Structures are given as C-alpha cells and as structure tokens.
C-alpha cells in the first residue's frame, strides 16, 4: 500500500504508463524488505471513490538489474 497525495502524482503515473517510460522505483514491503531498480509501468488503474479515497493498482515490469535488501 502506498499514498498518492494529489492529482500531479496521479498524472505522472498515467503519463509513464502511456509513454512506456522506464523509471527508477523503490518498493517497500510490510516486513521491511526493499526492492529497487528500473521498471516500466505497463498498467495503472484507479477505482472507486469512497469517502474521497480511491484504490490504485499498478503493474510494473523490471527493466534491468534489481537490488533486494532484506529487513
């Protein structure tokens, strides 16, 4: 789970999906593990509007070497 704090962040993700750009991402897991590297954002979905909140789903494909750091 993560947070998007505004329309600008949402637009950035939409643009990255449409252009198929490769960008650096840092994925942090609940147990403290971290995965960093370059990914291509191939799918971005926003659903629902409950209490001024939405749910987002992202599909990332690795685009190079990844670094895993255990908790």
User: CA-to-CA gap between the ends?
Assistant: 17 Å
> How large is the share of residues in beta strands?
over 45%
User: What value does the Rg take, in angstroms?
Assistant: 13 Å
Q: Mean of the pLDDT scores? A: 87
Please provide the count of β strands. 3
Oligomer: single chain
How helix-rich are the residues, as a percent range? 10-25%
Helix and strand pattern: HEEE
The count of helical stretches stands at 1
Q: Can you put this structure into words, describing what you see?
A:
The protein has one helix at residues 7-19, and strands at residues 22-28, 34-50, 53-69. It has a 3-stranded antiparallel β-sheet. By secondary structure, it is α+β, with helices and mostly antiparallel strands. The radius of gyration is 13 Å and the shape is globular. Strand 1 (22-28) and strand 2 (34-50) form a beta hairpin.
